[in-house]
Each structure stands twice: as C-alpha cells, then as structure tokens.
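User: Can you model how pyridoxal-5'-phosphate sits in this protein?
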Amino acid sequence: MELPAKGSSWETLKPLMESLKSNDYAWKSGRLPLYVYWRDEELYRVAKEASSLYFVENGLGKRAFPSAQKLEHDVISMVLNLMQADEAAAGSFTSGGTESIFLAVKSARDFGARNRAALGKSKMVLAHTAHPAFDKAAGYLDMEVVRTPVAADYRADVRVMEREIDSSTVLVVGSAPAYPHGVYDPIEDLAELSRKHGVWLHVDACVGGMLSPFIRKLGYDVPPYDFSIDGVSSMSVDLHKYGFSAKGASTVLFQNKRLKEYSRFHFSNWPRGVYATDTFLGTRPASPIASAWAVMNYLGEEGYLEMARTTMETKRRFTEGINSIPGLKTLEPGELSFLLYRSTDPEIDINAVADGMSEKGWFVGRCNAPSSIHLMFNPVHAPVAEEYLEHLEQVVSDVRKTGKISVLDEETY
Ligand SMILES: Cc1ncc(COP(=O)(O)O)c(C=O)c1O
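Assistant: Here's the modeled complex, given as structure tokens:
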C-alpha cells in the first residue's frame, strides 16, 4: 500500500477496519486461549475510557504530567503490596513482560559486574521452560544463557541449575509459573541458591502475578513465590494479562531502591540537560498506566477474587470434560489457570486433534514436550466450556475413525 494522495473520512475508514477484523479469531466467543483477557462490556468500558482519558499524555514527562506519575506510583504500590514487598521495595511501570524482564536482566548484569570474578560474558542460568524474553534480553545485553532441563514435574531442577553457576553467573531465574506447563518453579530453593552464591534472583510472575494472590485467598494451593522469600531480588508482574488492564502494562519490581538504581539510565552529555529514565522507552504512553489504575480501583480485591473464582471453576469444568473423553488425559500438576492435555491412546494423534479443533475455529496452543494441547483460562472461557468439549469429542472420534496424523509439528505464535 502507498500513502493515499488524499485522505478518507473516519466514517469510511472505521467500517473498513471493522470488516478486516472479521478474519480474526472470535476472541469474544472464547476462541483464544491467550492474548485476550475479558470479563464483560462493563469492565472493558472502564479500561478503555481510562485509557482514552490519558491518550495524549506522555509518561516520559514526569514534571509535565504529575497526575500520570501519581497513577503510576499508586499502581506500583498496589502490585508491590500484592507481592508482599516491604517498605524498602520499588518498581517501574513498563510496556509489557518483555520490557520488565529486559530491565531485570540489565540490572542483574550491572549489579553482577561489580563483584564478578571472571572476565568474558555475564551468564544467566534458567530452566528450559523460562520465557524466551530472557534470551532476547541476553542477545541485546551480550550475555550468555544456560537453560537447564526441568525435573519430572516440569519444575526447575535446582540441583542441575546450581551445577551451572560459576564466577560468570550474575542471574538465576525462576518462573511463577512458567508458561509452557503452567507450574511454579521452587522459588524458595532458588532463593537459597541466590543467597549462597550471591547471585541476583529474578522471579518471573508475568502471567501469574495478578492471579496467584487471589486464587491462594480462595484456598487453592499456591507455593511461595514472592518478596516474602528472602533472596528474591526482582519480579515481573504483568497487568495486561490477569490484571485486565489495556495492553502495554506491566511492572518490574525490585527488593529495594538500591537494586532499582541498576535499571536506571542517567545521561547529561548533550546540550539539553539531564535525561534520566527508569525503563527502556523514552516517550511512553500514559494510557496503559491510566487503564491499569482505573481497572485496579474499579475491581478491588473483591472483583479480582470473583474473576479468579470464575477462572478456576472454568478450569475445573474443562478438566472434568476432557478427562471423560476416552483417550485424552490432562497433564499433572497444571497449576494456576493452565490446563494441558495429551493423548493416552496410540490411535489418537494429539496434533491431529489440534488441527481438528483449529478447523472448528478454536485457536490452539501446542506444547511439544510432552506433545499436548495448551489451554489457559480467564472469564471469557466460562460460557464456552460445553461447546469446546462437544467439539473436542467430535474431533477425537473423527481422528480415531480416520487415523489422521498431523504434519504440523511446530508451534508458531
Ligand atoms: C511467564 C511469562 N513471562 C513473560 C511473558 C512475556 O510477556 P509479554 O508478552 O507481555 O512481553 C509471558 C507472556 O505470556 C509469560 O507467560
């Protein structure tokens, strides 16, 4: 497309854009197991109107927009409290999990550089299941990554990780939980490693941070994972996932202000005075900050608890339904809102089941170790459980009858 010589009216453009959307997956009908976190029109209106209210403001301009700064401060305080941090802790609002992780990795690298014995690249040690954002950050920051195999329950194997720690290691990572299997790494054991070797520990709670405290309060088993553990240096908690804020909203949190200083960029060697930022971006949209602030205040603990209840109840319905289909079995332990299922019948190729569900309009996440279908629930899925299970039963019976085998073996986002 070339830039049109003349502009068109919004009345022409809007329906055009809306019709383009008709080819997307029907997210409002629960067809996506990721990307969209949705309760209802009412919550959407709050997230969207708050976002529009700060559409123009720039998060870089702290002196110009003290109101945006106050909203940011409030949001960070609320998340720090949920993560059981104490008064010394501090944090920043970022554009997403990837930026939060980048900042934690950069801080760990710079912190480690002061007391590292070895020359050469700084190294981080993490489980095979940690998010790719760590390798992305390592690429940008010229660091080495060692990914270690997980234990039989898919959690980080701390003993294997410890063997990889040497004088170049500046960072150890744990996920709470990790995305591929939805299980929490043993953060208390990782914290012990971090204390013993004097290495920074980052806990990635991007996906779980805004759900774990609430499901724990509802009585579900959630292992310790936050700043209540001595030795957790930093955490990442996304608000655009289970925080239900507009996208572009995450937080990176530090055990204390001194550690946060390592994420800071401070510059004055140009004619325009001091330029200092705590995050990767320069100009930053203030709208996700406003959206997060409004949604968190609108929902309060009560609202999050209610959504957590719906989410876990939905997971229970799916789990029971899937396990009642002969030849399918859900994967254990499968914590938080995650559910993976695989085939226990050699005549059923789980990837052929995935293909069949895609043909029926469901966006299917696949896990390749073990070969399984990957689901993650939020309230958008509550009304579609029966429909999903009906389709699944049909697809499994079709695969069994026809002996279909999928040629697709690689997940693409
Ligand atoms: C555990 C975990 N960490 C990090 C991320 C990255 O978050 P984002 O896509 O917001 O950059 C995700 C995203 O799903 C995640 O599940």
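A couple of observations from the model: The pocket of pyridoxal-5'-phosphate is lined by residues 96-98, 131, 133, 175, 178-179, 204, 206-207, 238, 250 (CB under 6 Å). The CA atoms of residues 264 and 278 lie 4 Å apart.
User: Helpful, thanks.
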